[in-house]
Design brief:
Layout (H helix, E strand, L loop, with lengths): L1 H11 L3 H41 L2 E5 L12 E2 L2 H9 L4 E16 L2 E10 L1 H8 L5 E4 L9 E4 H7 L6 E7 L5 E12 L4 H4 L2 E5 H7 L5 E2 L1 E6 L5 H11 L5 E5 H4 L1 H39 L1 H9 L4 H36 L2 E2 L2 H8 L6 E2 L5 H27 L3 H6 L2
Parallel strand pairs: 4-9, 6-8
Antiparallel strand pairs: 1-11, 1-12, 2-10, 3-4, 3-7, 3-11, 5-8, 6-9, 7-8, 13-14
Helix pairs in contact: 1-12, 2-10, 2-12, 2-14, 10-14, 12-14
């Protein structure tokens, strides 16, 4: 076997320029595919992390009908049954974030704007969404406070500032009229325009009073300690709650649109990567085929003097595999610092591209993902193509007609 490896290695460098060009094509395909998939995974991770923290959390307990019919009439009662289920899994849960949400009209004088009113426990919500870091005026209220925090865009649309009075008019639980006046204690800024123009936050108890929904929640967000095993935790919680009244959902179920975008991206980026692979495959195949026909007479002579076909085929296979391995190793060595660089210094979009990305609810900053699985996947894909070409070469060598090969010039 050692002799076959030496022969294959020497044969490759009989035409070093052609070998280097072929290895380079594998290198660039590996590098481009790795960078593309790393970027795609970074975009997806950023999207998931943003949406999970800004919207749904990793797990939610809701009323059984709330997902299909999200309204205040389908709020859940935060009672003993829910508390007991949470206490039974307290070792797996980092913290919970209770919320009550509903749409209302925000008004000042004769001006009105639609608003999403959210009742929160400020310390827990701040831990999840880092609201205090986005405050531009005033401060985030405390649990027992009666003031409101509104989005910077909404404040601008209504001409409100800290210390002014915000009037909310809407519909509460079981069609009760919801009205209230709240002093503005702070103004918060979001990168996402839709949220910036509609956000109104109230202390949880104050929001429950406003919606006439005492001790009721639209959703109870659960942040687990281990985000890799949220499925089993969801199943365990659901088994302890009455399915007729409560539903436990993971983020994939709560954000089907995001999952659809991720699946579409996976399909597109995988297709592009395979275009690179196919181009490289044809490049390797062309090189190997050229080498085969250039050495046809040599093969005929070797076979005529007694060299076994299987040994000659093995040399041909090893040559092809060596080209693939050299390209993969070189590609990994070049790709690693590039991916690491963009992981440390993420791409930041601006202008129209930034506005487009913001439509998905994601901040336009995307780090690459440095994941060994991505490198391994590209290596296996390219090596598989190389192996397939090597098999074709082996079949051709096994079918060589010695007389025709010897006469070949």
């Amino acid at each position: 076997m050692g002799m076959l490896l030496i022969l294959a290695w020497r044969n490759l460098w009989r035409n070093s320029r052609r070998t280097l060009i072929t290895v380079s094509s594998v290198l660039f395909a590996f590098m481009l595919a790795t960078a593309l998939i790393s970027f795609a995974r970074g975009f997806q991770q950023q999207m998931i992390e943003t949406m999970v923290r800004q919207e749904t959390g990793y797990l939610q307990i809701q009323d059984a009908q709330y997902f299909d019919q999200p309204s205040l009439d389908h709020t859940l009662e935060y009672g003993d049954e829910v508390r007991q289920a949470l206490e039974a899994h307290q070792d797996e849960i980092e913290y919970t974030v209770p919320r009550i949400q509903g749409f209302s009209l925000a008004a000042k004088g004769m001006s009105t704007r639609p608003a999403l009113v959210t009742g929160i426990l400020p310390q827990r919500e701040d831990k999840l969404r880092k609201l205090s870091a986005n405050m531009v005026e005033g401060e985030l209220f405390s649990d027992r406070d009666e003031s409101a925090v509104i989005g910077e865009g909404l404040a601008g649309l209504l001409g409100l500032s800290v210390g002014d009075t915000l009037i909310l008019i809407g519909q509460g639980y079981q069609a009760m009229t919801a009205t209230g006046k709240f002093r503005i204690g702070g103004i918060i800024s979001f990168a996402i325009p839709e949220r910036n123009n509609t956000a109104v936050y109230l202390p949880l108890e104050r929001a429950q009073w406003y919606f006439v929904a005492e001790n009721r929640l639209t959703n109870l967000i659960i942040m687990p300690k281990d985000t890799e095993h949220i499925g089993p935790l969801a199943n365990d919680l659901q088994s302890m709650l009455d399915r007729e009244w409560y539903s436990v959902a993971v983020w994939e179920e709560l954000m089907p649109d995001v999952m659809g975008i991720i699946q579409m991206q996976d399909t597109v980026y995988t297709g592009i990567a395979w275009v690179f692979y196919i181009i490289v495959g044809f490049g390797i195949f062309g090189t190997v085929l050229t080498m085969f026909y250039e050495r046809m007479q040599e093969f005929g002579i070797l076979l005529s003097v007694g060299m076994k076909r299987r040994l000659l085929s093995a040399v041909g296979m090893l040559e092809t595999i060596m080209i693939g391995i050299m390209g993969i190793v070189a590609g990994a060595l070049v790709s690693l610092p590039i991916v690491y660089l963009f992981q440390r210094f993420p791409i930041r979009f601006s202008g129209e591209m930034a506005n487009y990305v913001l439509q998905f609810g994601v901040e336009p900053i995307f780090p690459f993902i440095l994941d060994a699985q991505i490198f391994l996947t590209q290596a296996v894909s390219i090596f598989s193509i190389t192996l397939f070409i090597g098999v074709i070469t082996t079949i051709k060598i096994m079918r060589i007609n010695i007389q025709e090969a010897v006469r070949n010039e």
